[in-house]
Amino acid sequence: MPVIKSSTDLRNNYNEISNFCNETDETVFITKNGRGDLAVMSIETYERLVGKNELYLLLEESEKYIGKGEKKPLKDVISTLRKEIKHKKI
């Protein structure tokens, strides 16, 4: 069940909300005048969410290449990745 707090709760109980987000990896939804306004989460939760989104975008992009018939052998991809890691490009 989502945790919903008012903007007043956020202002008056910041430390409690911060501790909750950091300890549980849950998001707290903040309302303003009774309507949804913000989503508050820990930095770790945010970074994980952004990372997942980046991965999904890369997978979507790769599916487009596959749909166009643009494929590379796995050994070539691995070789390229190793070179980029060695030269610290990624």
How far is it from the N-terminal to the C-terminal residue, by CA?
A: 39 Å
Number of domains: 2
* Amount of helix: 55-70%
Q: Approximately what portion of the residues adopt beta-strand conformation?
A: 15-25%
The number of helices is 4
Largest sheet: 3 strands, mixed
Name some characteristics of this structure.
90 residues; alpha+beta; YefM-like fold; 2 domains; three-stranded mixed beta sheet
Describe the protein:
The chain is of the alpha+beta class and 90 residues long. It folds into two domains: 39 residues, YefM-like domain (YefM-like fold, 3-Layer(aba) Sandwich); 42 residues, no CATH class. A three-stranded mixed β-sheet has the order 1-2-3.
Condensed summary:
The chain is of the alpha+beta class and 90 residues long. It contains 4 helices and 3 strands, in the order βααββαα. The protein folds into 2 domains: 3-41, YefM-like domain (YefM-like fold), CATH 3.40.1620; 45-86, no CATH class.
